[in-house]
Amino acid sequence: MKYLIQVCISAALFCACKSSTSSPPASDSTAVAISKPDDGLTGLYTGDFDGKKIYITINYARNNHLAGYNVHLGLRRNVSGSYKIASDGIDVTLNEPGDHPFDGKFTIHLDAAGDKGTGKWVPLNNTKLSTKEFSLTKVIRTGDKGNNFEADYPMGGDNRDITFKNDGSAVLNYYPQINDSTRASQMVTVRGTWERKGDSLYVTWEKKGDLPEPATLYTITYEGEGETRWLSGVETADSIRYWVGP
Question: pLDDT, tens digit, for every residue of 114-140?
Answer without folding.
Answer: 889 999 999 998 788 999 999 999 875
